[in-house]
Structure formats: C-alpha cells, structure tokens
C-alpha cells in the first residue's frame, strides 16, 4: 500500500467574523454565483470537525498527549485543535479506501526524549501505516489495541523503556513488514510464529529475551535479522539455509549460541554481513561458506573454532572485513592476509604475531573434538566401533 504523506498547512488566523445576517447573505450570494457560473466551490479543509477518520485520530492523539509526562523538546506543543494533520510528527494521506478522505497515515516522534506510556486509544488510528517512536522514554507495554492497526507497515519502538514479555499483538498485524524492538527491557521467550511473519526486517537485539532459535527460523523472508546481546539457547538451526534468496544481514553476536556452524550457512548466497562473534561456537568453519559470493563482512571472533581457515572463504570476491581472532585456528591461507581488514590475533597460527601461548593451544587441541548432529547441535559422540 503506497501512501503519499503530506502535512496540512497551518491555516492563517481568520479575520473578525461579520454580523450573522451579513454572513448569511454573503453565503447565499456566493452559492448563487457558483451555481450560475458552474464553478465548484472551494473544498473545505478536512479536520476532525468534518472528517470522522480525523475525529478518531484526534481522540487518539489527545489521549497520547495526556499520557506524555515529559516533553522536553515541546514536540506536542501544537497538538491543539481539530487540524490534526498540522500536528508535529503527524502525517496525513488519502485514505486507502476513499481517495477523497484524508486520514492519519504516519506518526513519527523519533528522538523526542518523550516520557510516556501507550494509551489504548492508539487503536483508533486504524489507517496508520508508520509508527516511529524510537529513542524516547516510553515505558510499560504496547497497548492491547495494537491489532486494530491493521494497515501498520512499520513499527519502531526501539531505544525506549518497554518492559514485559514479547508483545505478541505484533503477530496479529497482517501487513507489518518492519519490526524494531531493540534496546528495551523486554524479557522471556520469543514466539516461533514471529519467524513465519512476512517481515522484511526484525530487530530484537539488546533485550532480555531468552529462547531457542526454532526450526522454523528459516521460514522468515526477512532481509535483516539482528539477534545480538540476547540469551539464546541451543544452536543455529539448519533451516537457516532456506533464507538463501532473501537474507542480507544476520547478526547473532554475544547471544550465547552453543553449537557448530551448520553447512547450510554457506547457502546464504545473498548475505553481505554475518556476525557470529562472542558466542560458544565450536568445530570448523564449513567449506560451504566459500559459496557466499556477496559476503562483505564476516566476524566469528571470540569463539572456540579451530582447524584451518578454508581458502575459499578468503577468496570471496566481495569480502572486505574478516575477523576470526580469539579462536584456536591453526593455519590460514596466505591470501587471507590480502583482505582489506583482517584480524587473526590470539589463535594458534605459527609464524603470526600476537598468538596464544603454545601450551594453551596444546591443551585445547588435546580436548575431545565436539560432536555435532545433523542439525549442527552438540550431541553425544557415536559409540566406538570394535
């Protein structure tokens, strides 16, 4: 749904009203002249006084204004009167089902430093396509009325003080494509159904979510998925390979992932950024990653990876930044050092500077190698053959 946003211009202050009788006469004369000349009368500006959609928007916006306890930048100073399309941060457009009726299609109060909670009246903005409220001090939870925003396309409430569990009402938004919940205080599990939504971008990072990446993770058609600084359990599911045609950026840094890197990661041919650093990944880098021809940034630092760096990875044509420091790699092809930015510190690579002490490398290499099952998760090693 394409909407062309515009602000209604603030009307000039009216001149003093003429006497009622004179005004009536003027209106009758104007109407008669318009009829005789065949000229249509100028259209009256649409406000909450003459447009039911804007009337509902007025109720919602006034409720939001009352819920704001601190507005240090005076963003809502002009939120007065029926001309809601002139309110700061409010954007109006033709209604999707009536080209002659204006409606509130966007609300953008990003970086406002507003302290507030969400009123239930927000659900009256039923034509809203964009809700951008990042970098404020909204607390509490998203309103129960959120599913009434059935046209909502972008939801950005990042960098606030939201609490409680994952706002499951998001699952009821049929048209949402962009969900940004990062940098809040949300906690608990994330429902697997979020990865079945037809999203283009999903940002869950820097919350207190605790969950295991579900097997349907690969069902997501998103181009960007950021799961950094969370408390993930389990492993990277092999279904990640199903995202090959759509995924551009996958960031899972510092999230407690404990697994091998499945071969299916190498199927992500559209991926440009892959960050798996600061986890508990073990095993070797899969040779299949040599097929990620669009990869520009690869970071697997601060894990427990070992073995050799596949030469095919360092030969990737777009790779400009490759960080694999603080692991236990033993060898690296010489061409890896030709990459624009490479960091191989604190490994076990002979002849390279700033590597781990020899006894530390020997102790690690004498540990039993991890056994990963067909899903890339740690499993019990197979019984010995006699």
TrEMBL record:
<keyword id="KW-0964">Secreted</keyword>
<keyword id="KW-0134">Cell wall</keyword>
<keyword id="KW-0433">Leucine-rich repeat</keyword>
<dbReference type="InterPro" id="IPR013210">
    <property type="entry name" value="LRR_N_plant-typ"/>
</dbReference>
<keyword id="KW-0379">Hydroxylation</keyword>
<dbReference type="InterPro" id="IPR032675">
    <property type="entry name" value="LRR_dom_sf"/>
</dbReference>
<dbReference type="GO" id="GO:0071555">
    <property type="term" value="P:cell wall organization"/>
</dbReference>
<feature type="domain" description="Leucine-rich repeat-containing N-terminal plant-type">
    <location>
        <begin position="60"/>
        <end position="92"/>
    </location>
</feature>
<dbReference type="Pfam" id="PF00560">
    <property type="entry name" value="LRR_1"/>
</dbReference>
<keyword id="KW-0961">Cell wall biogenesis/degradation</keyword>
<keyword id="KW-0677">Repeat</keyword>
<keyword id="KW-0732">Signal</keyword>
<dbReference type="InterPro" id="IPR001611">
    <property type="entry name" value="Leu-rich_rpt"/>
</dbReference>
<dbReference type="Pfam" id="PF13855">
    <property type="entry name" value="LRR_8"/>
</dbReference>
<keyword id="KW-0472">Membrane</keyword>
<keyword id="KW-0812">Transmembrane</keyword>
<protein>
    <recommendedName>
        <fullName>Cell wall hydroxyproline-rich glycoprotein</fullName>
    </recommendedName>
</protein>
<keyword id="KW-0325">Glycoprotein</keyword>
<keyword id="KW-1133">Transmembrane helix</keyword>
<dbReference type="Pfam" id="PF08263">
    <property type="entry name" value="LRRNT_2"/>
</dbReference>
<feature type="signal peptide">
    <location>
        <begin position="1"/>
        <end position="38"/>
    </location>
</feature>
<dbReference type="InterPro" id="IPR051582">
    <property type="entry name" value="LRR_extensin-like_regulator"/>
</dbReference>
<dbReference type="InterPro" id="IPR003591">
    <property type="entry name" value="Leu-rich_rpt_typical-subtyp"/>
</dbReference>
